[in-house]
Amino acid sequence: MNGKTVMACIDAAYASLKEHTDEIALLDQQIGDGDHIFNLLRGMEALLAVRTEIESEAFGPALDLAAGKVLSTVGGSSGPLFYSLLSGMSKATADNAMDVGGFARFFSAGVDAVSQRGKTGVGSKTMMDVLIPVARRFDELAAVGASARMILDALPPVAEENMLATRDMLATKGRASFLGERSRGHIDPGARSSQIMIAAVCARLAQNRA
Ligand code: ADP
Ligand code: MG
To answer: Is 13 in the pocket of ligand 1 (CB under 6 A)?
Structure first.
């Protein structure tokens, strides 16, 4: 795990988001202002533009570099939130081993940072409804000694199930909350984009372990 791995994950997430551009744009048109996927793609493209720098760093510094780029290029509410995810993960690399348990803690630390930044937990119909259950399952599996391969197979279905569950929720945070009851019946765009990125990253990392 190093800057090259970070970049491979970014490539995988970018390719999958690109494939789902129209769908995510529509979701954010339904309950937001339509810009979510374009905010994300702009951030990812800024990361692709500094590929060599990211690839030449160690794992933690590569995440930190990516975090800074995301903060300066992704607009909307999601820019500072994804910055918090990446920088929270990067900071946690200082005092955790680069093993399965360490990765669970990096991810949890990143998700905690997003939660603090956005002042949101589960149930508000946001990306937290995907990120928090995935982080919890990751911790639980690491605690019982699950292999990396088992974890990479287990997390995407957790993300998917929780992304789908945002459809019936009432939005109480972010732009969608302005719609009140009318926010029900639509999947949250940030939950969908997070789920897509989690699925893509897990699939990419599983290739290394096939
Ligand atoms: P904006 O809402 O400013 O247009 P984006 O469209 O980029 O920003 O992102 C919208 C997504 O951000 C939502 O779908 C939701 O998942 C997420 N979001 C909004 N507010 C919060 C929050 N306080 N905490 C976590 N996620 C949030
Ligand atoms: Mg938006």
So the answer is: no
